[in-house]
Amino acid sequence: MAFQKFLADKLRIPVFGAPLFIISNPDLVIAQCKAGIVGSFPALNARPIEVLDEWLTRITTELAEYDAANPDSPSAPFAVNQIVHPSNTRLQQDVELCVKHKVPIVITSLGAVPMVNEAIHSYGGVVYHDIINDRHAKSAIKKGADGLIAVAVGAGGHAGRLSPIALIQEIREWWDGPLLLSGCIATGDAVLSAQAMGADGGYIGSAFIATTEANAEEAYKEAITEYGAEDIVYSNLFTGIHGNYLKPSVTKMGMDPDNLPEADPSKMDFGSGGNTDAKAWKDIWGCGQGIGPIEKVQDTQEYVEQLIAEYKAAKARLNP
Fold first, then answer.
1. SS in 3 state form for 214-254?
2. Which of 30, 42, 58, 184 is the residue whose CA sits 20 to 30 A from 215?
3. How far apart are CA 103 and CA 56, in angstroms?
4. Distance CA 57, CA 99 (A)
């Protein structure tokens, strides 16, 4: 498939590190790419906008230096996530910076806009669009996206409601291009399972919160190692879009995670805290259902090596 053709020689395991709001920073992205997976971050993490230029300069420079010193094991490409939604007043400027730095991969969310795709294509970049259903997938490809990220039930942050099996098989009925699966993936076994379903690889987010490079407070990192799937709540209260969050962080803010009200989707907010006094991007901790296997906070390199070992072991079990 096209995913393998584009990245076959650049990834040690078919994995993208998902962009994590606030948490993904240059340290994490660079570590992910050096470890052999696609590292990514949301453009909105770099504030003010001048910081995005600085981040892109640092990432491209450090990865180029690493590649020059390690020609036999170069870094993987990196990606920048763009929120394509009217609430993002920085979109045009952020896209222009991606063009300036020739960002290899751009991940678009919450809207598919041909202008963004055309800008990234102008220098040979590729665009992956995340979707939660087949209708959105068809729309994204029609508008010029090169690949899809199927966000299934249980994914961290803004997540869908569909089974990964149902979502992948519906998309594969008509699309044979690049396709990643997001939702509860935290082990090498799960990456192989995603491929068995028909995806090209896995899209891993929550597990990277519990890495030393992640820009998350220590209590958040430790929570990833302590809780499991039953400790996640699905709600649209905090940003206007349904997503998954750690129940203990909701309780800490004085709310009952099992009795949260519905928010007004027309008041979506990705920068000022949404529909509550709690700051969703800081005080309410986004997290997917797949955190059960995460048992310790560790370096990104160590975690990726663990993923690779698990992936190889899972393949060996299937082909003894």
1. CCCCHHHHHHHHHCCHHHEEEECCCCCCCEEEEHHHHHHCC
2. 184
3. 8
4. 12
Q: Judge whether 162 and 135 are in contact, CB under 8 Å.
A: no
Spatial distance between the Cα atoms of 319 and 121, rounded to a whole number of angstroms: 40
CB 308 within 8 A of CB 204: no
| Token pair 């090209």 in the structure block, residue | 200
The candidate with the shortest Cα–Cα distance to 205, out of 7, 1, 32, 13, is 32
In degrees and rounded to multiples of 5, residue 286 shows phi and psi of: -65, 145
Q: Over 50: is that where the pLDDT of 266 sits?
A: yes
Half-sphere exposure of 274 (CA within 13 A, CB side): 23
**pTM above threshold 0.90:** yes
Q: Give Cα 302 distance to the centre of its chain.
A: 19
Written as one letter, the residue type at 89 is T
Contact 287, 244 (CB under 8 A): yes
Q: What is the pLDDT of residues 38-73, one digit of tens each?
A: 999 999 999 999 999 999 999 999 999 999 999 999
Q: What strands lie across the sheet with 232-235, from one edge to the other?
A: 157-158, 243-246, 232-235
Q: Name the residue among 192, 214, 244 with its Cα closest to residue 28.
A: 214
